[in-house]
């Protein structure tokens, strides 16, 4: 896509931990981790909705573990920072409703090795997954989403440190980058919406963003000519699930590559790795990184597709966007084992590691097995 234009501007966004959709994602991944900590073979597919003073948990869970869902939910909300007693959505007084059943037998007979006619672990669902990597940053991530995540993460760190006590958990960031001949050359504009207490002065917030937050988060990409749009409506006091509805899996572009690559449509949070929506996408990212490290391309996208209950993928495709030998890259990718059980073993996915993936993107962060 990027090689088709001599000059263009590309924009990506990120969101903070307290964004209503991310509150839902974090609760879902906290519940997943709690199950995997007791029973690594837990089958978890849970969805969360947050609104006003209520959290609704729904989905399918089959496990030998015993997990107190309500306590996990309250603790997750507490960690995020919604603890103000005066607000409708806070960790101590929120209402929890649960609609959880066991995993469908038709799914388990395709996923469980003992029940599958081929005696292999089949994919937990049909679907298409994509992985992407580009050499435009050391993290092998597109620059716009990488910088947007840095701004959002820095907002959260500044709030937690107490340096800026007027900051609240909700927030959104957006970064626009100008490209020339397929390479990033300049940050054009930055949008930051930072939730704050009523006592905060908007002029102070704008100065904080443009003079303190942005230079730290953008690093060498910061310059004085960047256009900054800070709390564009004039204030951002009401935020989080108290005023907006949050649902699991609505930030799939934030979670991946900021729109720079295709997306198969499947969300990540709340799903154990038998669901190839998650594990397949993680593995495609891993393979895309390896293609770049082998010098086979400067930018690549890996697509894989599965049928429910079947271990081998139904298709595998590699695109190098004219930056390398697509045939060699695809041959290289086909040497990797894309069967769900092999992916789970190679990336060591049967561990309670998923809460650390929820915020600021699932890719480009250190400490994750698909990023090493």
Topology at a glance:
Elements: E1 7-15, H1 20-38, E2 43-51, E3 54-62, H2 69-80, E4 95-101, H3 105-111, E5 127-134, H4 143-161, E6 167-180, E7 183-196, H5 202-218, E8 227-230, E9 246-247, H6 252-255, H7 276-293, E10 299-306, E11 315-319, H8 326-333, H9 340-347
Parallel strand pairs: 3-4, 7-8
Antiparallel strand pairs: 1-6, 2-3, 2-9, 5-10, 6-7, 10-11
Structural class: alpha+beta
- Could you give the distance between the termini? 27 Å
Low-confidence stretches: none
Largest sheet: 4 strands, mixed
CATH fold type of the domain at 2-16 and 147-239: GMP Synthetase, Chain A, domain 3
Number of helices: 9
Q: What is the helix content? A: 25-40%
Which strands sit side by side, in order, in the main sheet?
A: 1-6-7-8
Report the CATH architecture of the domain at 2-16 and 147-239. 2-Layer Sandwich
Q: What share of the residues does DSSP label as strand, in percent?
A: 15-25%
> Quick one: how many beta strands?
11
Overall residue-averaged pLDDT value: 95
Written as H for each helix and E for each strand, in order along the chain, the element string is EHEEHEHEHEEHEEHHEEHH
CA gyration radius, whole angstroms: 21 Å
The CATH class of the domain at 2-16 and 147-239 is: Alpha Beta
Categorize the overall geometry.
Answer: flat
Describe the fold and architecture.
- With 372 residues, this protein is an alpha+beta fold.
- Among the domains are: 2-16 and 147-239, GMP Synthetase, Chain A, domain 3; 21-110, 2-Layer Sandwich (GMP Synthetase, Chain A, domain 3).
- The chain has helices at residues 20-38, 69-80, 105-111, 143-161, 202-218, 252-255, 276-293, 326-333, 340-347; strands at 7-15, 43-51, 54-62, 95-101, 127-134, 167-180, 183-196, 227-230, 246-247, 299-306, 315-319.
- The strands form 3 sheets. The protein has a 4-stranded mixed beta sheet with strand order 1-6-7-8, with helices on one face.
- Helix 1 crosses helix 2, helix 4 crosses helix 5 and helix 7 (276-293) packs across helix 9 (340-347).
């Amino acid at each position: 896509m990027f090689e088709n234009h001599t000059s263009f501007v590309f924009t990506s966004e990120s969101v903070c931990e307290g964004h209503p959709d991310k509150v839902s994602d974090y609760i879902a991944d906290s519940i997943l981790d709690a199950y995997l900590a007791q029973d690594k073979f837990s089958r978890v597919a849970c969805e969360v909705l947050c609104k006003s003073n209520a959290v609704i948990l729904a989905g399918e869970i089959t496990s030998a573990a015993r997990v107190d869902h309500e306590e996990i939910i309250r603790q997750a909300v507490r960690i995020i920072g919604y603890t103000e007693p005066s607000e409708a959505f806070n960790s101590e007084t929120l209402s929890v409703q649960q609609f959880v059943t066991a995993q469908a037998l038709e799914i388990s007979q395709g996923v469980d090795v003992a029940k599958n006619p081929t005696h292999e672990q089949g994919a937990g669902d049909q679907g298409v997954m994509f992985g992407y990597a580009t050499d435009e940053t050391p993290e092998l991530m597109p620059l716009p989403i990488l910088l947007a995540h840095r701004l959002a993460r820095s907002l959260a760190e500044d709030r937690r440190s107490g340096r800026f006590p007027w900051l609240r958990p909700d927030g959104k960031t957006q970064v626009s980058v100008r490209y020339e001949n397929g390479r990033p050359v300049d940050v054009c504009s930055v949008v930051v919406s930072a939730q704050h207490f009523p006592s905060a002065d908007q002029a102070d917030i704008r100065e904080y963003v443009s003079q303190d937050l942005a230079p730290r988060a953008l690093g060498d990409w910061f310059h004085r000519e960047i256009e900054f749009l800070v709390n564009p409506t004039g204030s951002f006091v009401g935020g989080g699930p108290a005023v907006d509805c949050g649902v699991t899996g609505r930030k799939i572009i934030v979670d991946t590559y900021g729109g720079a690559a295709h997306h198969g449509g499947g969300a990540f949070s709340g799903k154990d790795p038998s669901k190839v929506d998650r594990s397949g996408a993680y593995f495609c990212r891993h393979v895309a990184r390896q293609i770049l490290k082998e010098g086979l391309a400067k930018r690549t996208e890996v697509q894989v597709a599965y049928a429910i209950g079947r271990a081998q993928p139904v298709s595998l495709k590699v695109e190098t966007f004219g930056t390398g030998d697509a045939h060699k890259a695809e041959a290289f990718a086909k040497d990797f084992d894309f069967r769900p059980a092999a992916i789970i073993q190679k990336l060591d996915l049967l561990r309670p590691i998923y809460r650390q993936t929820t915020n600021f993107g699932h890719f480009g962060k250190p400490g994750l097995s698909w990023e090493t």
